[in-house]
Design brief:
The chain contains 2 helices and 9 strands, in the order βββββββββαα. The protein is an alpha+beta fold and 143 residues long. The chain has 2 domains: 83 residues, ATP Synthase, domain 1, CATH 2.60.15; 50 residues.
């Protein structure tokens, strides 16, 4: 039996995931990281993007979207703390596309009610959500 590590993904709304994994992948500020059991302790900030949890034993990877946050790694536990965490399968592509359009309009100067920094952050977040949706679509299509 392969070694596993306990993974908790928590958002402001509550716990999204709790379980065992052989590997966890996330988009940290310095690039994508892969964490295996007994990894050296670390704390890093996450960029908006996908967190993948590989339970191993031939089971399907679980995909989550986080809008950023903090990743804490201990030898036998990984904790992802995010303001927003959503199962990738639950992302609403139409709503994400509409939010992207609003952010692009704001950046083009067509919307006065949204400040520039907020529009840039929203555009980055929607791009990360769309990447998560596209990756999940490709995975489902390859089966």
């Amino acid at each position: 039996m392969a070694m596993t590590i306990h993974v908790d993904i928590v958002s402001a709304e509550g716990e999204i995931h709790s379980g065992q994994a052989e590997m966890v992948y996330a988009h940290a500020e310095m690039g994508e990281v892969g964490i295996a059991p007994r990894h050296a302790p670390m704390i890093t900030r996450l960029k908006p993007g996908e967190v993948r949890v590989d339970p191993g034993s031939g089971k399907e990877q679980q995909h989550f979207y986080v809008n950023g946050g903090v990743l804490e790694v201990q030898p036998h536990r990984i904790t992802v703390l995010a303001d927003t965490a959503i199962r990738a399968a639950d992302l609403d592509e139409a709503a994400v596309m509409e939010a992207k359009r609003r952010a692009e309009d704001a950046l083009a100067g067509r919307a006065a009610d949204m400040e520039l920094a907020r529009a840039q952050a929203e555009l980055a977040e929607t791009a990360a959500q769309l990447r998560a949706i596209e990756r999940l679509r490709k995975l489902r299509g390859s089966r």
